[in-house]
Specification:
By secondary structure, the chain is mainly alpha-helical. Helices cover about 85% and strands about 0% of the residues.
Length: about 60
C-alpha cells in the first residue's frame, strides 16, 4: 500500500466509529422527534373532531 494512503487511513479510520455513532444518534433523535410530533398531531386532530361534533350537536353549524 502507498505510504501516503496508509498515513491517511490511519488518521481517518480510528475516528470513523465516533463519526458513525454521532450520525446514528442524530438520526435516532430526529426519528424520535418526528414520532412524537406525529402522535401529538393525531391526538390534536382527534380532539378537533370531537369539538367539531360538539359544535354541530349544539347547533352552531
Amino acid at each position: 500500500m502507498n505510504p501516503i494512503l496508509a498515513d491517511i487511513y490511519s488518521t481517518v479510520i480510528p475516528s470513523a466509529p465516533y463519526l458513525i455513532a454521532a450520525y446514528a444518534l442524530v438520526w435516532a433523535a430526529l426519528l424520535v422527534y418526528v414520532i412524537i410530533v406525529v402522535r401529538g398531531l393525531k391526538k390534536t386532530e382527534a380532539q378537533m373532531a370531537v369539538l367539531e361534533e360538539a359544535v354541530r350537536a349544539k347547533g352552531g353549524d
